[in-house]
Amino acid sequence: MGLKEYLGDIWEAVATTAKGMRITARYGVDPRETITLQYPEERWEPSERFRGFLYNDIKKCTSCSMCVKVCPVDCIALEAVRGADKKLVLVSYEINIGRCMYCGLCVEVCPPKSLTHTSGYEKATVSRGELILHFVFEEAVEIKARVAKQVAEAAAKAEAAKEAKTTDVSPEAPTGAKGDAPSVPEKKGVPPVAQPAAPAFAAGNPAAGDDGEKKPAQGPKGEPAKPEESPEEGGGKTK
Length: 239
What we know:
Elements: H1 3-29, E1 54-56, H2 66-70, E2 76-82, E3 88-96, H3 105-109, E4 115-117, E5 132-134, H4 140-169, H5 231-238
Antiparallel strand pairs: 1-4, 2-3, 3-5
């Protein structure tokens, strides 16, 4: 190394140091240029487009599972059941912020815009389980039991309404005494069929009158009764 190069390096070092000290002096004198915050007493305010922790407003959430399907790291998990009004009822919704990469895809695809990024970025814990955020605080078993009861009540009410409607539209019952045979309508152009007259009395019926059929008188037991002689036959013999 020659003397000229040696002096050049010294000059470059002095100039660089002077440039750095000028920048430091400018920020030290100007109070508007704040570099260091006295954390945690002072906190940094993120911008409006900052992607902090995710938050889901379960009152708006429709349980469509779009956020679960689009998440590239599978940090969102939800469970839902079908309610009495055919809509999904959210049973559980969890986000693992220890796995989340804050890409914002879940927020973009959310139809009701219930999933948003917040300005939160502070989370210190000693276990991974505490990094899972829960948004449904009621027990899943209780939610499922309540929804199942509502579904059963709705089904019973619908069945009762169906039966009542069927009863209203059914034809009226024929008038007459209960148990009477329904009358047969007469056919036009068909002559009535003559029905045989019923016998006045049954054979051997003691209740029958004198107009009934009379049986010949019977003699004593073992001898047949003799027929009466006509007057002409008796006269021929006396002649």
